[in-house]
Write a structure and sequence with these properties.
This protein is α/β, with parallel strands linked by helices. It contains 14 helices and twelve strands. Strand 2 and strand 3 form a beta hairpin.
Length: 460
């Protein structure tokens, strides 16, 4: 008989989770025990992401719920006087495992110290304790780390991972007494993996304790990665997603893994460039907000009124460039930004792109997007010939243009300035300023509208 649809759906989702973490999968129609064992292997992984742990537990609960509640066993008839004694008789828990991870929260004594020598002494005692465990319990390998508790910042904690040649099996309230370190009872997580998944879970557990996570103070192991076992790329990928260690450490490990390192390096460098760009944008926005309230309104000029009126639903094939020429500290850039905002009001667009030109002859419009930009502000143009050399794209004809041209067009990007404003500023040191009156193209008002500032552009 085929399993219910809800059960099969939960099993399929659990199989996908097992595939993600390279855990041996079972069939969708497998029995309860096989599915449960597969989930136990997933949950025992040291590098399991928290959201995946929650999802696995939720899916397993949904899977088990399809079997309905387990029937309660019928109580055997007993005398009323003996009923209380029967209820109190509970067998002691049996601890049985071949590998285990221990966590010691050191919230007192040396564990709350910030002195490096005190913490080093604490770790040496912990390491001596671990060596004793190796001898007493016949452990095959042990890894220990001492870390700062970054969430609280008040104490340190330690992780220890052990695996054994023979199964650890003890029963009773004192079964775990051997793991008590200086009166600290550890949180204990046995490795529940079985079969061919066991060795992989052991390697993952040792690596999880050993790797240089954020807050790591000291590390020691007898089961070194890349010496005793290989490291899987998905381990460090998941740890990076959880922000458990720095990118420099991630690249160090990725280089040792070797396979796929170039892709890892490119991804990290791309993320760093993006974050640097975002930080600059945030800084600019913060500083701009400080001076926004201090800005004074700009004066009105007939040249600007003429220029702005040409945008919108006018049906023009092309539009002129606005060239603002003036000395320093007259507010050329302030006035140009005001013009682009007025054009944006007509187009229903708030933003514009600013490009600092100076002595460059090639204009970089790679960030221009006609969907969000009302136009382009070419600030500090160093030569009037820049406008004439780029006239075909700056006059905004309704056709696609490409920038950043290369021999193979690999680095080219498309853009269009149709019905978008181009405002350029020139100071008195710019080359060929006389061309605005002598050059046949630059002196034509249908191509370039000139505004010469002889006084401050804002209202005093």
């Amino acid at each position: 008989m085929a399993p219910p649809a809800e059960r099969r759906k939960a099993a399929q989702s659990l199989r996908k989770m097992a595939k993600k973490y390279d855990v041996e999968r079972v069939e969708d129609s497998a029995g309860k025990k096989k599915i449960t064992d597969m989930c136990a292997t997933i949950l025992a992984l040291g590098g399991l992401m928290e959201e995946d742990r929650i999802e696995t537990e939720t899916l397993l609960a949904a899977f088990l719920a399809t079997f309905g509640p387990a029937p309660a066993p019928e109580p055997e008839p007993v005398a009323a006087a003996a009923e209380a004694e029967v209820a109190e008789e509970k067998p002691d828990k049996i601890w049985c495992f071949k590998a285990v991870q221990l966590t010691y929260n050191c919230t007192q004594g040396d564990g709350i110290s910030t002195d490096a020598s005190v913490l080093a002494s604490l770790f040496e005692r912990l390491r001596a304790f671990g060596e004793q465990l190796v001898t007493v319990l016949s452990a095959t390998g042990i890894s220990i780390t001492l870390e700062e508790s970054l969430q609280t910042g008040t104490h340190v904690h330690a992780h220890m991972y052990l695996h054994f040649a023979k199964q650890f099996r003890k029963q009773g309230p004192e079964a775990l007494s051997a793991f008590v370190f200086e009166e600290i009872r550890p949180h204990l997580v046995p490795n529940k993996a079985s079969g061919r998944d066991f060795d992989g879970a052991v390697r993952n557990g040792h690596f999880y304790v050993w790797y240089q996570k954020l807050g790591t103070l000291h590390v020691w192991t007898t089961y070194e990665p890349w010496v005793r076992y290989g490291v899987e790329a998905w381990w460090i990928d998941n740890l990076l997603k959880q922000r458990k260690f720095s990118r420099s450490v991630y690249l160090e490990y990725a280089a040792k893994i070797n396979i796929g390192f170039q892709s890892c390096l490119q991804n990290i460098r791309a993320a760093e460039r993006y974050e640097r760009l975002a930080a600059v944008e945030a800084h600019v926005a913060k500083e701009r907000a400080k001076v926004t309230s201090l800005l004074k309104p700009c004066k009105t000029f007939p040249e600007i009124d003429d220029f702005v009126s040409r945008f919108g639903d006018t049906g023009a094939l092309r539009r002129p460039i606005l060239a603002i020429v003036g000395g320093t500290n007259l507010g050329k850039r302030l006035l140009a930004a005001s013009v682009l905002r007025h054009v944006g009001d007509r187009l229903g667009i708030k933003d514009f792109l600013e490009v600092t030109v100076e002595g460059q002859s090639d204009l970089d419009f790679s960030d221009f997007d006609h969907q969000i930009h009302s136009g382009v502000l070419l600030d500090g143009v160093g030569d009037t010939q820049t406008l004439q050399q780029n006239r075909e794209i700056l006059q905004g004809r309704p056709k696609m243009a490409k920038g950043g041209q290369s021999a193979t067009n690999i680095y080219s990007y498309p853009f269009c300035l149709a019905n978008r404003a181009v405002v350029a500023t020139f100071d008195m040191s710019a080359k060929n300023l006389e061309a605005f009156t002598t050059n046949h193209w630059l002196s034509e008002s249908r191509n370039v509208i000139q505004l010469r500032l002889n006084e401050k552009a804002w209202v005093e």
